[in-house]
Design a protein that fits this description.
Layout lengths: L2 H21 L2 H18 L12 H20 L4 H6 L1 H7 L4 H28 L2 H4 L5 H31 L4 H16 L3 H4 L4 H9 L2 H5 L9 H27 L2
Helix pairs in contact: 1-6, 2-3, 2-6, 3-6, 3-8, 3-9, 6-8, 6-13, 8-9, 8-13
Length: about 250
């Protein structure tokens, strides 16, 4: 199958998935949950003693925590719906590479996430830490680096949750596994503050934390190590998804 046909197939599958998400209550509920989680501390700082000055760093640290619910709810049933309706057999019979089928599922969830992030831009641009500089070039750079890393973060989680939906049947198991994995990789950097660990173990906990790798971007730093942290697992998970689909296709 040539590249043009693969791209057309990918676009068609992505549109199909977006249409499914638009009809599903999970997608609107997830978007509203994310927007409220980001916006309430900013809009009502006086009622929140924990966040008296809502900064960009606090915003960045909030997204991974909200993602514990956002992505599992959005993607846990992405393949189960195909199994229940019986359309998975039709889908797997299409003469397209496995990566196209997987990418269509991942791209649709990622687009919903990207749109949700886009809706948060007005709040971010009005943060005191940015408006004090009247959105100087430096402030614009910080916003760009922050959103660039958040998009990579979202792409990795969309890939992970779609893979778990392929790997395990049903809605409950993929949802719980997705939420557990995201929770671990969002909070593992906090383990050394709760349990005494050797310095090398503490450093390893930090290096495995998604939150830890997002933090430099909120200061305008785009580090190749942080980019690799999200991109390499994403590619590995996409490959694992294609292998799983190939296994399903071979089952008589």
């Amino acid at each position: 199958m040539d590249a043009n046909k693969s791209i057309r197939a990918l676009l068609a599958l992505t549109r199909k998935e977006l249409s499914f998400l638009a009809r599903s209550p999970a997608a609107p509920a997830s978007v509203i949950f994310m927007l409220l989680g980001c916006g309430i501390p900013f809009l009502f700082p006086a009622q929140n003693a924990m966040v008296s000055d809502y900064s960009l760093q606090q915003y960045v640290s909030r997204i991974p925590l909200l993602s514990i619910i956002f992505f599992p709810a959005l993607a846990a049933g992405s393949w189960e719906s195909e199994r229940k309706s019986g359309s998975i057999n039709v889908l797997l019979s299409f003469p397209v590479p496995n990566i196209v089928l997987v990418a269509g599922k991942v791209a649709s969830r990622f687009i919903v996430y990207a749109i949700t992030l886009l809706l948060t831009v007005p709040l971010v641009l009005s943060l005191p830490s940015l408006t004090e500089n009247t959105m100087s070039v430096a402030g614009t750079g910080v916003v760009f680096s922050t959103y660039a890393m958040l998009l990579l973060f979202g792409l990795s989680l969309a890939s992970l949750t779609v893979y778990l939906s392929i790997r395990f049947e049903g809605n409950v198991v993929p949802l719980l596994l997705s939420a557990s994995c995201i929770f671990i990789f969002d909070t593992i950097h906090l383990v050394p503050s709760l349990v005494f660990l050797p310095s090398w173990s503490a450093q390893m906990c930090a290096s495995l934390s998604a939150t830890w790798h997002l933090e430099p971007a909120s200061r305008g730093i785009l580090d190749s190590r942080d980019i690799s942290f999200f991109m390499l697992p994403t590619l590995a998970i996409l490959y694992a998804s294609t292998v799983r689909l190939d296994h399903i296709r071979r089952i008589p």
